[in-house]
Amino acid sequence: MRQVVYVVAGLVFLTIVYLLTWPVPIDPLAWNPPENPGFSGPYAMNNRLAKAEIFTLPSSQGPEDTALGSDGRIYSGLADGSIVRFSLENIDTIETLVNTGGRPLGLKFHNDRLYIADAFRGLIYIDSATSDGNHKVELAADKINGEPMLFVDDLDVAEDGTVWFSDASTRFDLHDNILDYMEHRPSGRLISWNPETFEIQVHLEGLAFANGVALGPDDSYILINETMRYRITRYWLKGEKAGQEEIFVENLPGFPDNLSYNHNGLFWVALVYPREKKIDSLLPRPFLRKIIMRLPEALRASEPEPMAWVIALNYNGEVVHNLQDHTGRYHTTTSVNEVDGYLWLGSLTATSVARIAAPE
Predict the structure, then answer these.
(1) Number of structural domains in the chain
(2) Residue 120's domain is classified under what CATH number?
(3) Are strands 74-77 and 66-68 parallel, antiparallel or unpaired?
(4) Backbone angles phi, psi at 76, to 5 degrees
(5) Gap between the Cα atoms of 113 and 127, Å rounded
(6) Could you tell me the pTM of the whole model?
(7) Which of 82, 112, 168, 264 could form a disulfide with 153 if both were Cys (CB 3.0 to 4.6 A apart)?
(8) For residue 208, what are the domain limits?
């Protein structure tokens, strides 16, 4: 009996030593999040998105973003690297244009060129088809000062053709993005690329998981989502404030993903997950987060509520529209784009895109 006690005590001691000292790949930073507004005030719970039409894309998964081409078809990038397009008249016929060899996320057309923020390849693009009808992936930028970009995420294109895009993290790539959340040490960047001079320039650093990007009216400023800090930052490009940054909106009730401007006074924001109390409670406790990272993955996993959530903000960062779906019909919403009177929704994990009439 005494031997059994010794063995158990030894195992307990080794477990404690392991949980307290075993190396982990993160160096957590303490952060005290503001109190979560939750489903209150302008974010009141509703099911307005439950009426959305869902368009299943056969044999497709993870249409993270959508873009409308000049041909009237919807374009999207999938988890397997494919860039696809389809028309609503024949949703069952999906044409695969190329495979990027990475993970396409944000998409944006500029004339007939489709720019793609690829998490692994960098900033890439495809032009109109060649004479043989094939498309070719072209590389715009994948390095800064010789160092590879780890997590190109979203983009927008200015009137002059300059591409503005986010590099979510300089610490971890898409495969290890959970480590970025657990570390909570901001390292994201806002970057521009000039298609005439091929110049690449970093404008903002130290962003808390730089995500969605959207240029404002007259390209006077650009908004960028900071997913890990539940906020949106504005960076001024013109006027007296040019070169300055400020908080556009903060303390969002969810994790902001992609961002788009409807060119009529509204910025649409996709909230991929609602905030969770247990996650917020961990953020001021970096040592506890290191202990959690030493646990088996099955004990660390947390399944958020399967919902869809998008909001619209005016030029002052005030909530104008708040659309949710708690039924689970559509969920993990990563993008929302207003096109011809409709909102098109993309998802990180779904096998479909969704559409609903834009609110007046």
Answers:
(1) 1
(2) 2.120.10.30
(3) antiparallel
(4) -155, 160
(5) 5
(6) 0.93
(7) 168
(8) 2-357
